[in-house]
Design brief:
Number of strands: 0
Order of helices and strands: HHHHHHHHHHHHHH
Radius of gyration: 21 Å
Number of helices: 14
Amino acid sequence: AQYYARLNHIDEAEHVLRSAIKALPEERDLKVALVSLLAAHRGRDAAAKELDAMIASEPKNDELKLAQAQFYEQGKQEAQAEAIYQRVIAEAGSAPAGFMARNRLAVLRIQKNDIAGAEKLLAEVLEKNPRDNDALILRGNLSLAQKDPKAAIVDLRAVLRDQPNASGVMRALARAHLANGEPALAEETMRRAVDANPSDPGARLDLAQLLAQLGKPEQAKPVIDELVKQHP
């Protein structure tokens, strides 16, 4: 299907995906791929109708409802996305889909600067599932934004126990250590982020900026040189 799409043979790509969905009806990724194809080449209205039809035929499929909410998010239709997340929360409760919906709704709350609303949703997730990494990352970043680096460090370190090479988490943890007056730990964390993700330009740039901020321009320069070499 991707091959046909690259050749702009959209009818053939759509036919392949529809045949695949018929043969493998449990595969969510195929359905999402079809919706993405329709959105890109038939228009968002056609994609929305396809999603509606899928959900009508599988009204208890929370994964499809979450995909529909993300589709609306991508289209900047936050009100529709929020309504779907609320419905999934009400129907799924403490099932994994309910936690995912709360986390995604918390992101929308943060975007609206409704920090109290976001914190309430994250607390609901972490009360039932204290190792939910998405919720921990969100709460850690909120703590960092609210000038509470110690709380951020606790949450971000908890995530790294499960995802030791997560670049974004290590970068946030380095900022938290720096805000907490621990520059050596911040530098150590950023160097680990670069070592674990050598092709991540953001990690390398953060390390260079941190070294410059710590008064180590002679160490920052080779990091920048390598970044320019990798991404001229």
